[in-house]
Amino acid sequence: MAGMSISEMEEMARKCRVEICKMTHRAQAGHPGGSLSEIDILCGLYGHRLRVKPDEPDWEDRDRFILSKGHASPGMYALLAEMGFISHEDLKSYRVKGGVCQGHVDMKWCPGVDFSAGSLGMGLSFGMGCAVAARLDGSNRNAYVMVGDGEIQEGSVWEAAMAATHHELGNLKLFLDCNGIQNDDFCEAQMRMFDIPAKWNSFGWAVKVIDGHDMTSIVEAIDWMDTIDDKPAVVIAKTIKGKGVSFMENNPAFHGAAPSDEQLAQALSELGVEA
Amino acid sequence: MSRMAATRDGYGDALLALADNSKVVVLEADLGKSTKSLHFRKAHPERTVSCGIGEQNMMLVAAGLASNGYIPFASTFAIFTERAFEHMRNGVARPNLAVHLCGSHGGTHTGTDGSSAQSIEDLAIYRTLPNVVVMHPCDDVSTKALTMQLPKLGSPSYMRTARNKTPVLYDGRESEVEIGKGIVLREGSDVAIIACGVLVHESLEAAEKLSAEGISATVVDMHTIKPLDTGLIDLLAQKCGAIVTAEDHSVIGGLGGAVAEHIVGSNPVPMEKIGVQDRFGESAGAEEMLEMMGLKSHHICDAVKKVIARKV
């Protein structure tokens, strides 16, 4: 699947946004805001670069993708359905008893999920383990991780940040989804993080800042990550929480709230779905 | 006088012996000299991952390695593993990734480092996690034998080792040591003393003293706290009609808690628990700590007499 064109990936992201709204509406729960902020990056990664086999999800030499901000699972599930890891019918199982689409992404439940998330601050360490394993195997596979900006308030993220450069893990690639909002409020109100790129720079990472909703920039950033092989690389993506649905955009209320019937209709209309 | 050794040395020996398996990797958090993983590091630096003083990261790096087919052995002090408890819970136990965690310097027997280093709750907290096997062996031979069995376990584990030397019981008896199977060290009919770790030795000493007073005690080394050897416990409850548990650990939730939880539903015989009485330790020598905490053989003798008096 990797090798899609920019317009194909943009269209995939639009379809995923539709599913994100439908899934959270159906469940009347979940996290649409962070799913909408991350989805362009996820579509760019899977559409352009990630070496995976949807018909063989446990292929040992696949690239790993670790969604550390595991609450943003509707975005991941929508993408996995687009990629063919799961069916679109499976998306109806989101937060439903027995469903493959557990509330937070879970490797034991859903094909194509490499990490059981749900507790913030753990994914980068897990990705480091995957990167060390790849190196021991003599494989050129990569471990890609996505964390949220609020998530980097967790101390163990910085344990991992320090350890990854100590071990010169050039096969560890991180996306930081900087949507500026966390559970209770804007990040600025909850815990100011000041100069985020400078922090990663000072930990020895290769750093690139991009617009996380511009597919051309996303693809260029993924290609740039490929050129870094002596240290871990982080793409700091400036994003908009709730991107693509006007009333969710930059609105802390839609971190963890589902759209109503009327709101869903408006969202689908804005996303180009004909009534 | 029998040979003396520390259980942590058995762990270090086992890692080295396991190195032939190229999937075995070792993770350290700046305490490899203490937990004894340093021998593996010296021989196989390419398969040793230094995580600095960062236990939470270490736990999830190990999980990532396990998810890629490696067999990670991570160690630090027992007390510092607890800092990463939720990482163990959510990142290791929940996805059932076979990470093997070793906490050395467990219990008050750790001694002069003081209460901050004396974990008295590790066995209890790890026992609450689904999928996790919990062990606390009593000598270096059994520690090595149990550790050697871990690559085939296929689920995560926690093993507590101890800092200080204790008598070696199992020289030449490695084959008797099996995960999940208690070992009867002495047969008796009046009471069953079920112990783990350092207190196995105190229990044997207690049984000897009791014998002189005409009391016949069974002594069991219950090196695996989970899964608990409930078959053996039921057998002993029926045979002896009274149980005393003994551990260098809080009386809340450890071996005593596990045995009590079991027998209350099967063979509710009188039972007494020797352990740390819901308090923290302090700086003192290892033997002084056991005395202070009520964990010496004479305390066990008192508990045995008390429990026998409670028999109907």
How far do the termini of chain A sit from each other? 30 Å
**Which oligomeric form is depicted?**
heterodimer
Rg measurement of chain B, Å: 19 Å
Would you identify the regions of chain A where 5 or more consecutive residues have pLDDT less than 50?
none
Averaged pLDDT of chain B = 97
The neighbouring-strand order within the major sheet of chain B is: 3-2-4-5-7-6-12
Instruction: Give the mean pLDDT of chain A.
Output: 97
Biggest sheet: strand arrangement of chain A: 1-2-3-5-4
Largest sheet of chain A: 5 strands, parallel
Characterize the biggest β-sheet of chain B: 7 strands, mixed
Any overview of this molecule?
The complex is a heterodimer of chains A (275) and B (312). Chain A has 275 residues and is α/β, with parallel strands linked by helices. Chain A is 40% helix and 11% strand. Chain A has 9 helices and 5 strands. Chain A has helices spanning 6-27, 32-48, 73-83, 123-137, 155-166, 187-190, 196-202, 215-227, 261-270, and strands spanning 64-67, 143-148, 172-178, 206-211, 233-238. In chain A, helix 1 (6-27) packs antiparallel against helix 2 (32-48). Chain A is globular, with a radius of gyration of 17 Å. The mean pLDDT of chain A is 97. Chain B is α/β, with parallel strands linked by helices and 312 residues long. Chain B folds into 2 domains: 4-167, Thiamin diphosphate (ThDP)-binding fold, Pyr/PP domains (Rossmann fold); 183-309, Rossmann fold (3-Layer(aba) Sandwich). Chain B has helices at residues 7-18, 32-35, 38-43, 55-67, 78-81, 85-93, 122-127, 140-149, 199-212, 230-240, 255-263, 286-293, 297-309, and strands spanning 4-5, 24-28, 48-50, 71-77, 100-104, 133-135, 157-160, 166-167, 183-186, 191-195, 217-221, 224-226, 243-250, 271-276. Chain B has a 7-stranded mixed sheet, sandwiched between helices. In chain B, strands 9-11-10-13-14 form a 5-stranded mixed sheet, sandwiched between helices. A two-stranded antiparallel sheet of chain B has the order 1-8. In chain B, helix 8 links the parallel strand 6 and strand 7. The longest helix of chain B is centred in the middle third of the chain and has 14 residues, at 199-212. The model of chain B has no long low-confidence stretch (mean pLDDT 97). The interface between A and B is medium-sized, with 33 and 31 residues.
